[in-house]
Design a protein that fits this description.
Blueprint: E1 3-8, H1 11-24, E2 30-34, H2 41-51, E3 68-71, E4 77-81, H3 93-101, E5 105-109, E6 123-129, E7 135-141, H4 144-163
Parallel strand pairs: 2-5, 2-6, 4-5
Antiparallel strand pairs: 1-7, 3-4, 6-7
Amino acid sequence: MGEWRYNSRSPEETRRLAAALGTWLAPGDIIALTGELGSGKTEFVHGLAAGLGVPSQTPVASPSFTLAHEYPGRLALTHLDLYRLENLSPEMLPDLEEYLHGGRVAVVEWAERAASLLPADHLEVRLTITGSQERELTFVSHGPRSEDLVDLLRHRENRKRRTGVIKWPSSNPDAPSRCKSRKKS
């Protein structure tokens, strides 16, 4: 299990980092977001949606009063918000399991509420408020595929620091071939 921390200075920076991650996502990737209210989980989802090619005119919002929203893009993104589900009822388990194990890209806000349902290989993103606009994002891999995603983000940020340039690949030309598609275990 690898871990990498990133200090974001603004919601826009959080969205840019998440958009970069979105360009590397493949069917079956699960992003588990944790953090208190106002920590930037929905901002992160906005970025993922952009990176997955969700049209900018498509409203991206937390599905607080429904279980899920689905957004069309290069890959469809399923956005789950478990804020109102402190106790999961048995009737909801089949739906959640389908979302989390059905081969789709899914992002889960308040993921700690369904920790036992998450697939073994998922990327956890902990968002912590460190200032009025600043957030610390801690990326924790839980398997080989999510480790690849953390490595790609770390590599991108190291390159940005060295060159002062951010490369926004549309087809991930710098991604190692093992990271371009999700391998089924």
